[in-house]
Amino acid sequence: MGGKSRPDFLHKLALRMLVPAGAGLAGSLALPPWHIWPLLPVAFSLLAWVLDFIADSEAVPARRYRAAALAGWSFGFGWFVFSLSWITEAFRVEAALFAWLIPFVLMLLPAGLALFWAVATAVAMRWWGGGARGLLLLIAAFSVDEWLRGHLFTGFPWNLPGYATDASNALAQTASVLGIYGLTTLVLAWSLLPAMLWRPKGSPAYRLAGLSAAVLALCWAGGVWRLAQPGPGVHDDIAVSVVQASIPQSMKWQRERRSEILRRYYDLTAKAGADTTLGRHIVVWPETALPYLVAEMPKLRQDVTSVLPSDSLLILGSIRREPVAAATDGSLHVYNSVLVLDHNGAVAAHYDKQRLVPFGEFLPFENILGPMGLRKLVPVPLSFTAGTHGGPLSVHGWPGFEPLVCYEAVFPLSLPLGDARPQWLVNVTNDAWFGTSAGPRQHLAQARFRAIEEGLPMVRAANTGISAIIDARGNVLKHLGLDSIGVLTAPLPRSLDPTLYARWGDIAFDILIVALLGAIVIDVQKYAKNPMLT
Prior knowledge:
Layout: H1 2-5, H2 9-27, H3 39-57, H4 61-83, H5 95-98, H6 102-124, H7 133-149, H8 169-172, H9 175-191, H10 193-197, H11 204-228, E1 234-244, H12 249-252, H13 258-273, E2 280-284, H14 298-305, E3 312-322, E4 333-341, E5 347-352, H15 366-369, E6 401-405, E7 424-429, H16 438-454, E8 458-462, E9 467-470, E10 476-480, E11 486-493, H17 500-504, H18 507-526
Parallel strand pairs: 1-2, 2-3, 6-7, 7-8
Antiparallel strand pairs: 1-11, 3-4, 4-5, 8-9, 9-10
C-alpha cells in the first residue's frame, strides 16, 4: 500500500526527462533547415506544463529546483542532440582514426550545452505558479543563458531559438534592431503563448499573452515594411565572383592531388575573369582553398591572378605562418587567414582568424592532452594561433570589407561606424567536413543574420557549399548548392545605413531583460498579499 501512495518512479522519470527531451528534439525542428516552426510553441509549452507538474508535486523547494533543472537539461539535450548531430560527420572523414569518438561527441557536447538550459528552468522555478511571473522569469533566464552560451568558454551560439525566424525573412528583420539575442527573447515569449493562455482565467499571464501576440504582429509588419523599402542598389562598376571548387575533405591534403586542386581553382577563376562586362572585378575563394602556403609562393600567386582582368582583386582563405624570426616569443605561429591579392599577385592585405574552434583548430590544455594522443582535426602539426587584431580590410580604391573565417560568422559583430565602417562582409568557410548534413545549411542561415544585423551585404565562399551572395537585408540573391562546382557572379551589393543594432549592439537586448525583471518585481509586489492572483 505504501508503494501505491508514492508517485510512480517511471511516471516521474517520463515527465521530468523523457517528455522534455522529446519536446526539445521536436522544437529543434523549427530551426534551419527544417523550418517546422509550429513545433516551437508546442515544445516550449510542453516544457512549461512539465514545470507546472513539478511545482505541484514537490513540496520541498530544493527538490523542485533539482527536478526543474533536470527537466530543463533534458529539454536542452533533446534540442542539441538532434540539431547538432551533423557534427559527427567530421569524425568520419578520417574514420580509421576518429570514428570511435562519435558516440562521445554526440552525447557530451549536447549534455554540456544543455546545462545552460538547466540553470534557466531551475531559476524559473523560484516563482513558478499559475500567473505570469514564472513565465517571465523563464524567458529572462533562458535569454541570459543563451547570451552566456555565446560568450563563455570561447562561446558557441549555434542554434539559438531566435534562428527559427529564418523561416520568415520578415520576422528575421527584427535582428536589425535587437540582434539575434534580443530576437531570441521574443521568440521565447512567442513560443510560450499557449502556456500563457492555459493559466487560470483572469491571470496576468493573459495580458502577457496579448502583449506577446501584439509584438509578434508588430515585428512581422515592421519586417514586411522594411523589405518593401527601396534597396541600396549595387556597385555598377564592381562585379564579385565566388568560386566553389567542391574539393572533398578526404582529398584536400593529399600531396598527389595538389596539382589537380590548383588546376580546378585556376580554371574556375579564369571562367570568372572572362566576364569583363561589369568593369572592376573581385573574386573570392573559400577558407584554406589551396593546400599551399600561398603567402610564401609569389610565382603561384602571379599565375593565378594572371587570368583576371588588370583591375581585379582575389580574396582567399589560406594557412599563413609567421617565421620564427618575426615571432615575438621566438616560436612558430600558424594562422588560418584571409589574403587579399592584387592583380599582380602581391599580398595587399591579410587577416588572421581570431575565434578558433576548440579541438578543431587548437587543442585546449595542449600540454596535458597532447601527450595523451588526442589529435586535432586540422592539417597542421601545431595548433593555430588566434589573430591579435581585427578590423575591416581595405585596399586603396576598393570598398573595405570585414572578413569572417568559418564559424566566426555565427557570432554577432561589433563593427566600427563612420569612415572606418566596412561596406560588405566576406565569409570564407570550408564546410566539407560536414558533407551534405544540416550543418552547412545552418551555417548559411546563421551567417545571413549578420547581414541583417549590420545592414551589410555578405559574399560567402564555401568550399563544397553553400556559397551565396546576400544583400544587406539578408535576401539570398544567388547561391550554389552543396557539392556543386561553379562560379557565382553578380554586381557587388551596396550597404544600408548602419542599423539600430549596428549602432547599439546588445543594448536593446539588455533593455529587454531589465524590462522583464522589472515586470517580475512589480508582479511580486502587487500580488504578494493575494497568492491566488499569482
